[in-house]
Amino acid sequence: MREIFWLIPLIPAVSTLILAVFGEKLPKKYISFQACGAVFISFLISLYSFLGLLKISPEEYPVVKNLFTWIHSGNFKADLSFQFDPLTAVMALVVTAVGFLIHVYSIGYMSEDRSYSRFFTLMNLFTFSMLILVMASNLVLMFVGWEGVGFCSYMLIGFWFEKHSAANAGKKAFIVNRIGDAGFLIGMLFILVHIGSTDFININSAVASGSLSHGLVTLIAILLFVGATGKSAQIPLYVWLPDAMEGPTPVSALIHAATMVTAGVYMVARMNILYTTSETAGSIVAIIGAVTAVYAGTMALTQNDIKRVLAYSTISQIGYMFIGCGVGAYAAGIFHLYTHAFFKSLLFLAAGSVMHALSGELDMRKMGGLKKYMPHTYPAFLIGAIAIAGVPFLSGFFSKDAILTAAFAQGQYLVWILGILGAVLTAFYMFRLIFLTFHGKERIEPEVKKHIHESPPVMTVPLSLLAFFSVIAGYIGLPVVLGKNVNWFDRFLAPIMHKGHEAHLGIGTEWFLIVISVTVALTGIFIAYVFYLKKPSVPHTLVRRFPFLYKLLTNKYYVDEAYDYVFVRPTLKGSEFVYDKFDLNVIDGAVNGTASGTGFFGKILGFLQTGFIKDYALAFLLGAIILLGLLIF
Amino acid sequence: MIPTYYFLILSAVLFVMGTVGFLIKKDLITQFMCVEVMLNAANLAFIAFARSASSLDGQIIVFFIITVAAAEAAVGLAIILLVYRQKKSIRTEDSSLMKG
Question: A301 in the Ramachandran plot: left (φ > 0), alpha (ψ -120 to 50) or beta?
Fold first, then answer.
């Protein structure tokens, strides 16, 4: 295979540079063309490299291209080098394909925005950073991408920074991510100290040879996972993602649904040997994922903001991916990442289309009956919802089923039950969203209703393409019950995934699991149908019956308030105290003291400066005599 | 032949005269001439040593000193002229702008 894959991240980088320098002066048409074109070329190269990868034998994985030595200091060495293997191929294809469609959609969505070029500069910068993240062949370079996407996320959440809430949401995302990053960094340093290299190849061989103690592997795996919980919005660091919806909708689709938030899953899959070696770490990943999946699902139930429902749903779905990784079914986790990228970005873009039609309205209580106004958006949204709910024959069904089956096969029954529970919730809140938005009677405000319109083709065509992929994407990973070798995706990723103990289920059990997951999905949809179409009074009765539970859910379990009380306020108070006492007195005192001390000594020495030539001459003479005296005696 | 120390005594006398003159006179021109006397005292010492050591080095240095002295005279006189224009006086106690 010709090694041109290192060009994949480079092309968006070049485009970013051009847009960053000249963007303000370029016409909008050209900006859109260049930004989308760059991502599309990256996609073509990814596709080419992927086809090349299929031709070579699995023993040659990963293909590494070392560009140059980046850091070399003592024993520590980090290269600017990229690698290409099945996992990278999947990620690069998802990032560039979904990224390209969202770039195109943004042309329509952002067309009226003042900061058009800034938006596309940041989107391209994000694509570049994300590709660095997934293609890096060592942890240090991966960390560069990891931080790069965090920075772009911060810039794009706060894109409309004149809005106070958007600026705050950006800060929140950045700070919460830093907490996770600290864990990642410490884990990386442990690897550096004990293995001496951060190249994935060396880490794999070092852990495989057993040169690290079991406890150390567990520690490193957990520290890295802390980083993943920050980036991928898992308990306890998920709080930033719902607020991140302050950003433009294409950003929510690309960064906060399809790609960046799944970086943690990618990282766990990339370091899979750690989580296979240490079963403790693996179980922690699975349990955190399962609890998050249910927990975020319950919070999505009562939200009225269309984008926030999708945000909680993203958190919940990433929980599923971690279940997959935690129980050793890395391929299933990545498979769900890949299908989720399609249907979740589809849902976000469709939600953006709804907002576009309703002059920026986000509240589902002010929607309803939109079906007849939006003939293109509605079917796309519906397909996305069916896919995520896990109805058979769409992509979400195959990937979610693969994860839950793996959890069951590994004997993690608690995780499996939580996963099933999460599936009911997913189906319910997605169809609640559909029914409230598109069906039922219209609750649109009269002023908004005058401007209601379907979105332009530049927005609906990407929607249709994503809907198409949401339907068919799952067919490369069919469940084992349909035949031994039908799961092409699993086989493709198998060479780089380290297997723990294998567990096989009987065909009967597998069918049983599939029937259960289909049943729960349909049950969820049915409950939503009863609640929001058939008998709209039921939700109100429930709210009256369980006011405490309802309040708990609408207030998101008061976690934001608790964090505010436990972490944010003491920090602010402490900072204020330090500012008041230490900064103003000690630091400023030291600085001002230095200045006034210098002035004081200057004044004293100033007396010697009489201004008369004679005094200087005398001093000169005396000095000369003293020097002469020293020389002679 | 006249012993070297004769010249050195003369040179020292001239140098001290120059120094003392520079310190006690209040007139910039006079002080300037005192500096010239000190320079020539040094020249005399160089010549005397060059003669006693039968080497040309000292004599060459004297040429340099004469050149520098000429340049210094040009600059020095220009400064004195400018001081006079500003202050209408060349007495040293009248110029003390650099007082700290």
Answer: alpha
In sequence order, which residues have a C-beta less than 8 Å from that of residue A451 and are 6 or more positions away? Answer: A359
Q: In angstroms, rounded to a whole number, what is the distance separating the alpha carbons of residues A286 and A333?
A: 11
Q: What is the 3-state secondary structure (H, E, C) of A391-456?
A: CCCCHHHHHHHHHHHHHHHCCCHHHHHHHHHHHHHHHHHHHHHHHHHHCCCCCCCHHHHCCCCCCC
Q: Is A609 in Cβ contact with B92 (below 8 Å)?
A: no
The token pair at A528 is 């939503």
Residue A182 pLDDT class (50, 70, 90 cuts): very high
Instruction: Enumerate the residues of chain B whose CB falls inside 8 A of the CB of residue A617.
Output: 22-23
The CA distance from B72 to B79, in Å, is 10
* Phi and psi, residue A269, nearest 5°: -65, -35
**Selected residue of B38, B93, B94 to mutate for chain A interface (largest A Cβ count, 10 A):** B93
- Is the CB of A609 less than 8 angstroms away from the CB of B22? no
Q: Is 0.90 surpassed by the pTM of this model? A: no
**Alpha-helix runs per DSSP H in chain B:** 4-24, 28-52, 57-87
Whether A628 contacts chain B with CB within 8 A: no
Beta-carbon count within 10 A of A145 CB: 20
> For residue A197, what are its two tokens?
């290299």
- Asked whether the beta carbons of residue A611 and residue B92 sit closer than 8 angstroms, the reply is no
- For residue A1, name the pLDDT band (cuts at 50, 70, 90): low
Distance from CA of A591 to the nearest CA of B (A): 25
A618–B23: do the CB atoms touch at under 8 Å?
A: yes
Mean pLDDT confidence for A142-154: 94
Cα A208 to chain centroid distance, Å, stands at 29
Whole-number percent of chain A with pLDDT over 70: 99
Q: Which residues of A touch B97 (CB under 8 A)?
A: 611
Are A256 and A314 in contact by the 8 Å Cβ rule? The answer is: yes
The residue among A292, A171, A182 whose CA lies nearest residue A227 is: A182
Q: Find residues 601-620 of chain A whose CB sits inside 8 Å of chain B.
A: 605-614, 617-618
pLDDT of residue A440: 84
